[in-house]
């Protein structure tokens, strides 16, 4: 099973969320949006200056900075 | 009977459309949190009952990490509403249900209004409303508010819930055994103590969760004198949790997670997607509007196009209005003469008040009537959050928050709104930066003046004004944006030191704006309101200035005394005494700066007939205006103290005199410095 962080996910590919290492208020915010283990996340595109990146999760579009995406652990969709 | 109704929902779900459709009050509340600055309210009648409806700020969640969410949650918790309507977007139900479930935890008598059914249909999304109602345990009404479909059912349900004809059994999120046992005990203890609409279960969860703010508020609000018993029960549960596998910090996760999972379950069982590609369109547009290559150029191009249309389009109607006002001047004087008014009074009224009114309307109305509808269309389409997405990196480099781009956009409308809008920024430090720099975006009170000065001095009046001149206006706005970034950067390295905090930005789906309605609404609400404010302030000011200019002390008019006093300093920074005086007198409202300038010149100079902007330019040139004066006036308009309303809002939002004073000082110093540098360079090298 290949594990990596969300900021490494290439555009247009979909991954499964494994765990969150974020702490404090951003952790709660992410959980609230639906960043829960087992959730599908699609990397949609990056902004003109390469950061933040836009992800589709549970039907909504969320932009996250790479500093925060670094702490989100994901794994490949098809190996689950 | 009279009932109170609260309206809440995610941003951009058509909450305002529902509000306007029910109350008939055309209160403009944009589609991004912060627009509803104070809680807007409106009344409507239905079957002999009166309802007062409160429009709460749009929010995605009530976990209350931003000021915006806190305001919404406090309103849900502590304001006594008879009915709470949650407006949802049918095209992304799951995300919206998260808020619904959070509200169901807190309060009773909820109605869920699933809006935008027409768009859902277009995207081939079907929602089983009946099943949804069953699953949630509260009434669900489907509607398309913009074409007024489903509003009758909504009204009917509002009446039934308000008059207690419907017994609701709202669904509750279930937690693990230990938490549930704890909740049960605490709820029992709360029953005799709590006579509010806040659910006992919610209070119990928050106490176990150890939410510090809510705990303090709750005790204060519920007036619980003996909280020892409660506290004992709470700590008992917490100890039990410690003994089990769940760690306390996991508990917080657990509570948030359970709601999301429940929303997922309900949404998936009630929604059918007949076309799995329904999101393709949004992605396609985003690929274009926020792309690496095209994102920034498209954004600039949009800005330029909007300005181009505004400048070119405003020219002709402006002249038309000028001649219209002018043609009434003669008859008006004859009329007053006919009434045997003393000449002095006639002059004061016609050449003072009336003439100023004419200037204000002719100069300000056309650009506003063109600019605001276009801006509102951009706003309604969902593009503004994309600007924040595009520019976040720049703000991050300045240790600020990308959402500041959004509050900047709000500033275009009104800086006071922009300042309150800063509540969407979670981090206090970044919020302060956004508040202190908001004034670098010209609001609608300053915009028309900047446009008309550019038209007069840089566009020329010949046909086919060159694009280059439009770039000038774009450059002015870009200068404002760069200054915002520059000052934000300095602030985050000095007074407001800190690292950029984490943030998430939600991009709502694109919506096709309702063009006609937008145009009517923005002309009625924004344009006319701003104009009215300008007139209300300009009329008496026109009179006062006329008196100032004609009452002499020691052979010189008061106005001349004042402007002469300011003149030496004003000249150094490329202005003149009259202009600086106008900015000072314009503190109550920026709209009247140009009228004051005109008034002052008119009353001291020679009277001629003015029939167009060409004549206005002549008047300015006659009073010593050069290209340098025009540039410096524009720069100073872009950067000087905020208007009185904005200052009061800053005081309210920051709660501190220190930050309010700084918000006055920072732009003023920037303006003076920039004008001084410009004037010096100009004088040394160009003239």
Rg of Cα set of chain B: 29 Å
Tally of domains of chain A? 1
- Examine the secondary-structure arrangement and name the CATH architecture of chain A: Roll
Number of helices of chain B: 28
Which structural class matches the secondary elements of chain B? alpha/beta
- Percentage of residues in strands of chain B: 5-15%
Poorly predicted ranges of chain B: 28-37
Total of helices of chain A:
2
Q: What CATH first level of chain A would be assigned? A: Mainly Beta
Provide the residue-averaged pLDDT of chain B: 84
Account of the 3D structure:
- The complex is a heterodimer of chains A (80) and B (687).
- Chain A is of the alpha+beta class.
- Chain A has one domain (3-76): Ferrous iron transport protein A (FeoA) (SH3 type barrels, Roll).
- Chain A is 16% helix and 40% strand.
- Chain A contains two helices and six strands; from the N terminus they run ββαβββαβ.
- Chain A has a six-stranded antiparallel beta sheet with strand order 1-6-2-3-4-5.
- In chain A, 49% of the residues are buried.
- The mean pLDDT of chain A is 88.
- Chain B is α/β, with parallel strands linked by helices and 687 residues long.
- Chain B folds into three domains: 2-162, P-loop containing nucleotide triphosphate hydrolases (Rossmann fold); 177-245; 295-497 and 513-686, no CATH class.
- In chain B, 64% of the residues lie in helices and 8% in strands.
- Chain B has 28 helices and eleven strands.
- Chain B has helices at 15-23, 67-78, 93-106, 117-122, 129-136, 151-162, 177-190, 200-209, 212-222, 228-243, 248-270, 280-289, 295-338, 343-381, 384-397, 404-413, 415-421, 428-437, 447-459, 467-491, 515-550, 558-572, 577-585, 593-604, 613-622, 627-638, 644-654, 657-686, and strands at 2-9, 40-46, 49-55, 83-89, 110-115, 125-127, 140-142, 271-273, 504-507, 552-553, 556-557.
- Chain B has a six-stranded mixed beta sheet with strand order 2-3-1-4-5-7, sandwiched between helices. Chain B has a two-stranded antiparallel ribbon with strand order 6-8. Chain B has a two-stranded antiparallel ribbon with strand order 10-11.
- In chain B, α14 packs antiparallel against α21 (515-550).
- The longest helix of chain B has 44 residues, at 295-338.
- The model of chain B is unreliable at 28-37 (pLDDT under 50).
- At the A-B interface, α1, β3 and β5 of A face α3, α11, α12, α15 and β9 of B.
